[in-house]
Backbone:
């Protein structure tokens, strides 16, 4: 049995301007101990996907359809109180905005200790000892002082380390890292990624690594999938995706990434994808990428929905070219 | 060290604002039309004799001296603690105010406490999925409370509960026949000290209507401001993160959310406390409540200048103390606010 199996998940935001289909029929599966990369542009629905798994999609968002099977149980069928016993205990999240994600008037100590007390029933003394141990794990110096301090007294990188400690505190089966490196500088980024990697190994958790950076994903994950406008366009093991991408969007994405990374002077020329992502409330009919696609065919705009075709073992593409 | 320096700075600026307020109060009292001496002399048959009497009265009240001299004399009176002598009652103003202050505080303090508790409570159902009806109800009530002034509520209560149903007393603080020795002036404290517990029940019965009339409006204010500040706090990333940690919605709303949302509410509360102090004048008059408000109304009617000035100075001191308490609470609630 796989650890997590998401089937045809749909999460919509009911805004005054219309229905935003942030996650629109996403299905995937992951094994115990696996690191799965989720790559996509801003607005592709990656964050909403992560929040949907924890069922913490903020208003006016709603999970409208699908199943989320976690260790065989459908999370969407659990009551709110059953779900809250699971959050932070078996599934946890490392957020995108470390500085904004710790509650300002509460000390770091209390914010780490509370998960240990709530989920594992630790006494105050036990929780304190474990908290110090966790801070050591996430390489925080001057631990006693950090415990007494408040979130605003820490740097972004420090906050992220604290949040990583909280995420792994109860040895969860699954950690969702939601762009954990977006708001810290490059050097800290590398440290944070390798820290998450070593914590994941140490605590034996599975990891969903959400990022917009193909490069980061490829260094960390075995498999990844590409999201665009709420859908999965391609899913494959990392080497296959990088060396022989199939979907026109993936090809373009990797070209963009290479052109950004290349140290060859290009006289200001950078490869870009023409056009912009589709309007969230009025997506195009047919293939979601069709308006920007360089290999589009006539039928692409006519078909209702395109399933994921398996082109090779473990390599899925949602494109009519590979029917 | 930091806190002491802060305290010293606060005391300095408090003293400065106190002086400015006394000057303004003093000048205002001289500018308002109406001559207290004129009111006190009465009439005499002989105009010449009358004028002599009038001059004598002015000299007695010190009104014939230059205005700065009058002010300095008053300032001296403030620092000796008697705040001058009331024209009408012919006793020092200080003790007179102190005698009435407890009754006003007995109205205002329960009002503020109740308004805070109920107002904050009413602002929370919005954040529980099954309580949408309660939020609608609270908002409807809030709209009603906001559009009806507190003295209308007062009259309304008197007619219904005082007259028609005749279940609540409509005037004073205690039933006739209950004698209570005055120790602090606060009835609950005095009855506990003197062991006259029957006074407490009688007092609470008298307290219900005036406090209810004052509280209804305050509740709607607190409800509105706290609800809107909760709305923005509950959208913050840290609330989402608290949820992701598995904290219950109850804990998130009442501990994690509220503690962040309470700052604007607290500011309002401080302002409303001082507004109520003087705003309870009408309610005190309506329920024959022997507080400062009633005293102030009669002082103005009789142009009792030292008494008016004294009451204004008292309000000023209370405002300064309240602000200091509220500012100190900020730091307790939110560690990002430091004393500098």
Residues:
């Amino acid at each position: 049995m796989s650890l997590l199996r998401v089937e045809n998940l749909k999460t919509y935001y009911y805004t005054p301007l219309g229905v935003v289909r942030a996650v629109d029929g996403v299905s995937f599966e992951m094994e115990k101990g696996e690191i799965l990369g989720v790559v996509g542009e801003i607005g592709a629905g990656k964050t909403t996907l992560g929040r949907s798994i924890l069922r913490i999609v903020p208003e006016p968002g709603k999970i409208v359809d699908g199943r989320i099977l976690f260790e065989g149980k459908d999370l969407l069928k659990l009551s709110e109180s059953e779900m809250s016993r699971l959050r932070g205990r078996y599934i946890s999240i490392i957020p995108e905005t470390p500085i904004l994600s710790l509650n300002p008037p509460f000390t770091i100590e209390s914010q780490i200790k509370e998960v240990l007390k709530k989920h594992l029933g630790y006494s105050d003394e036990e929780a304190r000892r474990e908290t110090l141990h966790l801070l050591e794990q996430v390489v925080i110096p001057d631990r006693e002082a950090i415990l007494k301090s408040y979130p605003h007294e820490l740097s972004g990188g420090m906050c992220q380390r604290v949040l990583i400690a909280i995420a792994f505190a109860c040895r969860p089966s699954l950690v969702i890292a939601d762009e954990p490196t977006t708001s810290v500088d490059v050097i800290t980024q590398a440290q944070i990624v390798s820290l998450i990697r070593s914590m994941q190994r140490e605590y034996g958790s599975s990891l969903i690594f959400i990022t917009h950076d193909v490069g980061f994903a490829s260094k960390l994950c075995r498999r990844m999938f590409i999201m665009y406008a709420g859908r999965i366009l391609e899913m494959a093991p990392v080497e296959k995706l990088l060396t022989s991408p199939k979907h026109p969007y993936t090809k373009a994405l990797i070209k963009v990434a290479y052109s950004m990374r290349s140290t060859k002077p290009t006289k200001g020329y950078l490869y870009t994808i023409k056009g912009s992502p589709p309007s969230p409330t009025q997506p195009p009919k047919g293939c979601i990428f069709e308006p920007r696609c360089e290999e589009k065919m006539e039928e692409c705009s006519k078909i209702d929905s395109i399933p994921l075709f398996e082109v090779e073992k473990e390599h899925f593409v949602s494109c009519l070219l590979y029917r | 060290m930091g806190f002491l320096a802060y305290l010293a700075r606060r005391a300095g600026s408090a003293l400065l604002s106190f002086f400015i307020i006394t000057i303004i109060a003093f000048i205002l009292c001289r500018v308002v039309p109406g001559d207290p001496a004129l009111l006190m002399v009465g009439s005499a048959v002989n105009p010449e004799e009358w004028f002599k009497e009038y001059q004598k009265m002015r000299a007695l009240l010190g009104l014939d001296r230059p205005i700065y001299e009058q002010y300095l004399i008053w300032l001296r009176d403030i620092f000796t603690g008697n705040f001058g002598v009331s024209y009408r009652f012919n006793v020092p103003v200080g003790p007179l105010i102190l005698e009435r202050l407890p009754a006003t505080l007995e109205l205002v303090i329960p009002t503020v406490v109740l308004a805070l508790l109920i107002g904050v409570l009413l602002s929370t159902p919005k954040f529980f999925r099954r309580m949408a009806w309660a939020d609608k109800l609270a908002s409807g009530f809030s709209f009603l409370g906001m559009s009806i002034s507190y003295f209308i509520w007062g009259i309304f209560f008197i007619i219904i509960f005082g007259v028609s149903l005749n279940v609540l007393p409509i005037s004073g603080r205690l039933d006739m026949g209950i004698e209570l020795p005055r120790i602090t002036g606060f009835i609950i404290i005095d009855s506990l000290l003197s062991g006259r517990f029957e006074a407490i029940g009688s007092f609470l019965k008298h307290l219900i209507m005036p406090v209810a009339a004052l509280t209804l409006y305050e509740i709607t204010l607190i409800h509105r401001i706290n609800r809107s500040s909760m709305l923005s706090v509950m959208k913050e990333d840290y609330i989402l993160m608290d949820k992701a940690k598995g904290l219950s919605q109850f804990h998130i709303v009442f501990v994690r959310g509220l503690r962040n949302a309470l700052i604007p509410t607290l500011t309002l509360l401080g302002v409303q406390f001082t507004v109520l102090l003087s705003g309870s004048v009408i309610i005190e008059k309506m329920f024959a409540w022997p507080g400062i408000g009633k005293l102030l109304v009669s002082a103005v009617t009789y142009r009792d200048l030292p008494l008016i000035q004294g009451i204004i100075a008292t309000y000023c001191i209370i405002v300064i103390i309240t602000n200091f308490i509220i500012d100190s609470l900020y730091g307790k609630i939110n560690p990002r606010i430091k004393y500098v």
About this structure: Chain A touches chain B at residues 51, 54, 56, 58, 80-81, 84-89, 92-93, 95, 97, 100-106, 114-115, 118-119, 150, 152, 163, 166 (CB under 8 Å). Chain A is about 35% helix and 25% strand. The first helix of chain A runs from residue 46 to 54.
